[in-house]
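How a chain folds remains the central question behind the approach discussed here. This step matters because it turns folding into a mapping between discrete strings. The sequence in question and its structure tokens are set out directly beneath this paragraph.
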Amino acid sequence: MITARAAATFDPVGRSVATARSFVRDTLQGWGFTDIVDDAVVLTSELVTNAVVHAGTAAEVLCLRTGDGARIEVADRYPEREIPLQQSLATMGSPDREGGRGLQLCAALASRWGVDYTPTHKQVWFQLDLPERPVGIRTAGPSLPTDLLPLADGRVRVAVIQIDRTGAVTAWNEDAEELFGYAADQVTGKPLTDFAAWPHTPGTSTGIAEALQLSRWEGSYGIRGADGRVTPVYASHLRVRDADGDPSTVCLLVRDHERAVLQTPLRGPVHPDPANLTEGHAADPFEVFIGSPAPDDLDGLLQRTVERARDMLDGDAAFLLLATDDETELEVRASTGLPSARQRFARVPVEAGPGRYGSARMPSVHEDLSEVPGAVPLLNGTGLRSVVTVPLKVEGRLTGSLGVAAEAPDRYSNEEALRLQFAADRIALAVESARLGELERHRRGSLSFLVEASDLLAGTLDRDQTLALMAQMTVPTLATWCAVYTIADQSSEPYLSYVLHEDEERIDGLKALLARIAPPDPVPTPGARVWNTPSEAAHEAALRTSMRSLGLGEPASVSSGIGTTLATSSAVGGETVVLPLVARNRVIGMLTLGKPSDEHFRQEDLELAEDLSRRAALALDNARLYSERTAISQSLQRSLLPPELPDVPGVEVEVIYRAAGEGNEVGGDFYDLFPIRDGAYGFAIGDVCGTGPEAAAVTGLARHALRLLAREGFGGPAVLERLNAAILDEGARSRFLTLLYGELWPQEDGSAVLKVVCAGHPLPLRLRQDGTVEPAAEPQPLLGVMDDLELYEQTVVLDPGDVLLCVTDGVTERREGPRMLGDDGLTDVLTTCTGLTAGAVAARIMRAVERFASDAPSDDMAILAMRVPGLQKD
């Protein structure tokens, strides 16, 4: 007879094998079938691997609980695969083979197994039976040698004390008189609290007054005797009522080292190792409950706790929640018998409603959840009806909640609540210690993560690369998928700028889904807020696609889209949160993080994501500002250079310009070539001291003043003297300027006449046809320094085949360590350019400069080459 079932479908991808193993393990552990979990997981792993890896189809796994065990069925959509029929185990396949191994394992491990075929799919099933258990030893102690039995006095005295409803002593037996030194008439009518020394130790959440009101309680405390000394005792309290219905509490007390006389054995197959029992010392209650050795990690400790709690109360499920730092919410951290993948990290409020049963701070028992729907939100839709929950407290502070549930109603009462609270008190301190240890490790990891993230974000000022880094740092570390929205300005709508999913095949579907829905509101409130729109839209799209595929609703235009739609729905079906990207008091975008179906974010991950969003927002805004500055600088740089060079009859002209840096600063080098009047052309190449706006102002002044003054008919010296005065008029904003200015007249005989003035600039070089190189001008004072300049121009005649080379100091001052190219190095390169065109000369000079040093240039470079080719013969 089938008493429970669980089913799941897994996509044909490699990671589905691990997911299927977890599904089967969680299901069987939830049913309490721990004895067959390992075999079931091994067989499921092999059969699902055959389906999703070898057959390449989806795998459908069905778990069925029967009276004597479990049956697991694995089906795929590839029935044509060959399986061994009518063969012995020896011929079914070797463990070293890829094929047949799953069926061989079924034959070796399963009680029964088989293969079923239909026209559309193949199903392999196996049955695992539970082993038979011995009956009647759940509360029996082990058989021990005499020398290992617990020690006691020659006569064991058991004090019997009865307490009335007010907490006063009404009965005090002779053993109590012997143990504590009080006669009965000395204590009768007095509160027990006057004599009890209650331990205020971490992990104990119940006081003496509360313990006396409970139906049953066991534990250690002390009784202050007549001599003033405190005697440690182990007590067992039982709440009773007389024939008239008046309640009272009967307390049995023994010396603490004789606790074995009263201590109730734990339920379950707990078999202490005699080698671990030492003379005069009882076993640690924590180790007795958890088992030895205890798990050394928090998740393992919590999982062991819920499994032991479930077994202790014979429940169908158990769960443990840990409180957040502010004790306002509880986060699911471990469960058994529940869909743990769906519930893990889900959060519920500590105070869910008025009264005792609405608060996680107090023990509570629900006999039938069907009568109070929603009383325990965590169990909604699970079919569990009775539940008992108790708090975990450390030094009076709520640290968590432990619960056990059963499918049948009326399974639990205050008796079970007391037993569970007793266990919770003894594990609370260990759980809190492990939680703090995990939190410390998480914080250290978070700090390292943020340091690395800050370094990566600070290492780029490119907007697109910053967006990619933001997404790659969150996926898969913090989320399964991520989307970044950006806002250009206050009047713009959020724009979907980047989408990333841990599975690259899901990115296109996710991007299409997010593009169809309205973006989240750009709310500047810090912190993560839940955004349900993506999951709702994905579920609606999946529903519509499924209906169309079944011939319902609107006809489908593309029938093959159902797989992508369903995959997208699964990918974004979990919790989605939005964090604002705020920089300089303005929302510049939103960081959206998502989980797959029914998964939740951990509070620590959300806090880490919030820290990351603040750093990412500043980096993104810096990238925006840098991009704007670069665009402005490049636009300004282009405006300071001539848009195009005119054609000069009979003269070849070539210019090469290389700006240094990353393009975000305006360089100080410039050049120009322009017609002055018919047959005359002006040319200039200069270098303003420094870079940036001040240098750009002088550059613009120089280039436009040269053209204006030259076209007004002024000669070279007059042009430069007036330009010098204009620069000095700029005052503190002025910059000195080196400038080579000349006027060019092409001649009818194929030569060219030049008149040049070299004001502090590297001298122009003349290359003759015979390969000799000589300066074409003499040095004169630079501009922008002295008021009175006496400049003069020099005349140069370029014969056919001659080349005039003009450069800025970025060329001659090119360095490699202590070496510098210099004027001599430039001269040596120019001597090799005989017979080359102006363009070839400029290109060879630039190649030589770039090869001279391996580092990127640190200064702007401009090269102006003019060559007179001579007259063409007919």
Residues 286-350+358-426 form a domain with the Beta-Lactamase fold (CATH 3.30.450.40). The chain has five domains: 2-80+100-129, 159-261, 286-350+358-426, 460-549+561-623, 651-868. The first strand starts at residue 2 and ends at 10. Residues 81-99, 266-283, 555-561 have pLDDT under 50 and may be disordered.
